[in-house]
Amino acid sequence: QVQLKESGPGLVQPSETLSLTCTVSGFSLTSYSVSWVRQPSGKGPEWMGRMWYDGDTAYNSALKSRLSISRDTSKNQVFLKMNSLQTDDTGTYYCTREGRVATGYFDYWGQGVMVTVSS
Amino acid sequence: QITLTQQAESLWVSPGEKVSITCRASQSLLYTDGKHYLSWYQQRPGQTTKALIYHASIRTDGVPTRFIGSGSGTEFTLSIEDVQPEDIALYYCLQTLKKPNTFGAGTKLELK
After folding, report:
1. CB contact under 8 A, A62 and B97
2. Given A60, A103, A110, which is nearest B48 (Cβ)?
3. Which of chain A's residues have a Cβ under 8 Å away from the Cβ of B102?
4. What is the mean pLDDT of residues B62-87?
5. CB of B78 closer than 8 Å to CB of B21
6. Residues whose CB is less than 8 angstroms from the CB of residue B91 and which lie 6 or more positions away in sequence, other chains included
7. Which residues on neighbouring strands pair with residue A34, listed in sequence order?
């Protein structure tokens, strides 16, 4: 069945770089797009960016200067790297699969990984 | 960017009642294909986020028929008829018409 699982460090120092991995199963990254979404505690989610099924990427302009999304299709993994982290980057980070083309919704979500930015 | 406003932070319901959660967009979410790019999600503690509705009114696979999405243009509603205890959760709307995709701030459904 379709599964997504985020992994990465739970604690990051201010000004450092966050690296997260989304490992997927049950579908191909060349057939479905994957987005990263984050959610500060007690607040609404924020869409960060997308790895399209064709390898193209799209970013939230608010994060674009700090964010990079890539993938390794042979390992069924999508990667997020974000630099210059600050305390307001603290929150839960999710990877999500997007439904088939033109449905425009996120049909499967990972459990999320909690990231705390603190010294 | 498109702002989604979920006016109610919390709504209190009793089991068996009907409740409606609204989501207002700062511009129309209707695309040239005739579909609205508005979806609804449920978040429960300890569970993965669940997609309920897409294209404003289409239930995703396995979602109970008591969940009903409606609306058009800029005004959308998620209605839950005959609320069950397991429906107590956070609900979010999401627009994917334009980048950046944006979420509403969420509505928490609570038991009276």
Report:
1. no
2. A110
3. 47
4. 97
5. yes
6. B6, B21, B40, B41, B42, B43, B52, B78, B106, B107, B108, B109
7. A51, A97
Q: Are A90 and A116 in contact (CB under 8 A)?
A: yes
Compute CA distances B51 → A60, B3, B27, B83, whole Å.
Answer: 21, 20, 23, 17
DSSP string, A50-64: EE-TTS-EEE-TTTT
CA angle B33, B100, B58 (to 5 degrees): 40
Strand B107-111 to B10-13 pairing: parallel
In whole angstroms, what is the distance from residue B106 CA to residue B6 CA? 6
Per-residue pLDDT tens over the stretch B23-63: 999 999 999 999 999 999 999 999 999 999 999 999 999 99
Mutation site for A-interface testing, chosen from B37, B101, B102, B108 by largest number of A Cβ within 10 Å:
B101
Contact state of B49 with A109 under an 8 Å Cβ cutoff? yes
Question: Tell me, what amino acid is at A70?
Answer: S
Per the CB < 8 Å rule, is A103 touching B92? no
CA distances from B83 to B8, B23, B49 (A): 17, 19, 19
Q: How many residues does chain A have?
A: 119
d(Cα B40, Cα B59) in Å, to the nearest integer?
A: 9
pLDDT digits (tens, 9 = 90+) for A4-48: 999 999 999 999 999 999 999 999 999 999 999 999 988 899 999
